[in-house]
Design the sequence.
């Protein structure tokens, strides 16, 4: 079955496609759903999935994934505003902001929302790591800043990142549920 991943971010699609190979066909839909201003990734993803499903006009279900980077020393900033901060401040300046802190721990969180017109289900994944000076060329977004077990996410192959990442964990929960869907 086909799942339409409503997102403007090709990095997310690549990871979902690789993870769900043999489970579902992932098609990217570049519809710009409303990202509500909320502290809750789950609220943002749920509303986005419902809107995406309604607006993109056929019966195939959709997935929307909202992700945030939560830095301990910055009280969870940029969190749900991570896309805005990446586009405005950028990862180099975020690094400078965190580099003076003793505690550089951070978490990525992803909530995937699946909507089929009847129901909306959510699946979550989290990854704890450390903010470091940017390293590596793989991945996207904040990957070069985020170290897990001695390597940044941008120093891992897509498969290595998927095996441990917030998105990989959310995709695992989705895949388990999807195996018994309909
Ligand atoms: O280092 C990273 N590793 C990841 O695995 C990852 N996933 C997302 N991001 C970044 O975090 C923000 C999320 O915002 P976000 O969920 O709204 O996504 P987005 O705006 O890029 O696409 P869309 O799906 O909303 O269209 C954006 O700045 C993304 O680049 C990541 N950074
Ligand atoms: Mg976004």
Sequence:
């Amino acid at each position: 079955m086909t799942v339409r991943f409503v997102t403007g971010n090709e990095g997310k699609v690549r990871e979902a496609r690789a993870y769900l190979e043999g489970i579902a066909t992932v098609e990217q839909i570049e519809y710009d759903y409303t990202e509500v201003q909320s502290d809750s990734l789950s609220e943002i993803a749920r509303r986005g999935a419902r809107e995406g499903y309604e607006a993109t006009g056929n019966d195939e279900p959709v997935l929307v994934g909202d992700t945030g980077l939560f830095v301990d020393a910055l009280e969870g900033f940029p969190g749900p505003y991570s896309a805005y901060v990446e586009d405005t401040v950028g990862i180099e300046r975020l690094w400078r902001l965190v580099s003076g802190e003793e505690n550089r721990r951070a978490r990525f969180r992803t909530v995937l929302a699946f909507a089929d017109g009847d129901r909306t289900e959510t699946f979550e994944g989290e990854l704890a790591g450390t903010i470091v000076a940017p390293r590596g060329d793989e991945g996207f977004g904040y990957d070069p800043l985020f170290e897990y077990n001695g390597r940044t996410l941008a120093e891992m192959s897509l498969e290595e990142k998927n095996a441990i990442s917030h998105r990989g964990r959310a995709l695992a929960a989705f895949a388990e549920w999807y195996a018994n869907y309909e």
In short: The CA atoms of residues 95 and 122 lie 31 Å apart. The first helix runs from residue 10 to 19. The longest strand covers residues 120-131. The beta strands are 2-6, 25-29, 62-71, 78-79, 105-115, 120-131, 146-148, 151-152.
